[in-house]
Amino acid sequence: MAIFLLVSAITALSVYAIEQVEAQRGEAQHRQVATTVTAAIERLVNANAVYLRAGALLSPGLAPSSRDFAAFAHQLSADESLRSGGTLGWAERMASDQVPAFEARMRASGDQGYAVRPRALGGDVLPVAFVYPADAVGRRGLGFDMLSEPVRRGAIERAMRTGRPTASGAIDLISHDDEAHSSGFGIFMPVYADDGAHRRMVGVIARGFVAHSFLRDALAGERLADYGIALHDAESPGSQPLAVLGEQAGAGRRVTREVVLADHRMRIEISPPAPATLSNLSLLTLLFGMMVAALLLIVARLVTQQAAEDRAALAWFEEQASIRNSLTRELNHRVKNTLANVLSIVALTRRRTSNIDEFVAGLIGRVRALSATHDLLTQSEWGTTPVRAVIAAELAPYAQGTDRAVAMRGPLVELAPNDALSLGLAIHELATNASKYGALSVPGGRVEISWEMLTDKLARIDWSEHGGPPVATERRRGFGTELIEKIVAHELRNPVDLRFEGDGVCCTLVVPVRPPAAFQIRAARPAEAGE
To answer: DSSP for 469-501?
Structure first.
């Protein structure tokens, strides 16, 4: 997981660095687009301003005739770079009282419906005399007094002061019938006559532009992709844009440039296209990084899992080796104890018998007693063995009759393996003696065996015979007595009370009851647990 997180962090940092570079590259591209747009608009405005300045010199000292104006307009329209959706016009300056004579002259020249509008009550007027193109749409502007409208008046007065072509702010184009694109602006160039005594303005040559068409034509040759372009009148803050191309983004993402077009300040706003969530390079880096991180995570997981399995296998082998060692030590210890018991039995049997047959018979019986108890211990995997099971195994040959000569009663008491072997040997000797000389040697005799817990660590087992032959007061101590009083008492670490009553033999054994952890093969020994 640490490797995965590290690679993921490196990938995230790489993507962040790439996005920062992409953002800087995008900003540089946005600025370049803004510069391109500004230059294209300036170029078109300046070209028109130059032609208007040239038109002002068309007929020095006189107002241009319709023929002169038509020739000039034809030359202007022949230049593809100046086709920008505009209408070229000539407005003649005169006093308001000269308007009737002017209207008569214009009507006499062929325009029967010519009239100046709106009518001025005094002062100078500047009605449009000629337009190009002279189609139905363009002719709507004929007769309009350009001084009657404040925005046009302001631009014309500024042009008169400077003597240069001057652009206006936003105006409604009279000659345009498309309400969606009727907003525009005009460029006005005053024409002067000099009679030697003084210089006077005789009129204005002007070009009106539909802002949307002007912007579209100015940027026709530029590669702007999905950029949004808006043209604003910078001298009228808060006003609606003159023209908009494309979609406008939020104000925080716009690139704004202010430019002076024919002595009038305009503002150009560039809206970059909505950026992708991540650039292609970032997506490739992210994908590759995630693949590497996932691959490393899988490899690390496999290696970790293999290491865990190896550790588990080593632990299992160590456990098995420890169990084998413990089993070997335990079996060695128990075999030695069993062999010691057998040797003791052999030695005592040899001393207490006078012929080989008696020796063999006694030895076989006692070894079989040990074997029967061993079978019980094997079944319990050398764990605890119930007292009832040990006694039942040793008395099984004598409890097959229907007279029930053997009776057992007592609670569940579990003995350790060595203690069970010693108890089984003692019960065998008592049963053998009872079958030869005691209660089990005659019909009607019976043996009662009971046990109980003295403490949580000691159990008492009582053997009593009834109904057997009378017990002689003078008797020879036999091997069974020696075995019980010496070997069994030594193994059980408690004295054995063996009594020969007149009614039969009585024997009381005290057997230790130990917890399984003290003798089980796989239990941790105190010494090992402390290491």
So the answer is: PPPPSS----HHHHIIIIIIHHHHTS--EEEE-
Structure tokens at 395: 């008395």
Q: Which CATH number fits domain 337-530: 3.40.190.10, 3.30.530.20, 3.60.15.10, 3.30.565.10?
A: 3.30.565.10
Alpha-carbon gap, residue 185 to 42, rounded angstroms: 14
Q: What integer pLDDT is reported at residue 462 of this predicted model?
A: 94
User: What pLDDT score was predicted for residue 528?
Assistant: 40
Identify which of 142-151, 295-304, 347-356, 360-369 has the greatest average pLDDT: 142-151
Homologous superfamily assigned to 2-271: CHASE domain (3.30.450.350)
pTM: 0.54
Distance of alpha carbon 449 from alpha carbon 390, whole angstroms: 12
Average of per-residue pLDDT across 233-250:
80
Query: How far, in Å, CA of 352 to CA of 123, rounded?
Result: 167
Instruction: State CA 302 to chain mean position distance.
Output: 21
Beta strand residue intervals within 133-282, DSSP E:
166-167, 171-172, 183-194, 199-210, 228-233, 243-245, 255-261, 264-271
CB atoms within 10 A of CB 198: 7
pLDDT, tens digit, 9 for 90 and up, residues 451-467 = 999 998 899 999 999 88
What pLDDT, on the 0 to 100 scale, is given for residue 526? 44
The CA distance from 78 to 466, in Å, is 150
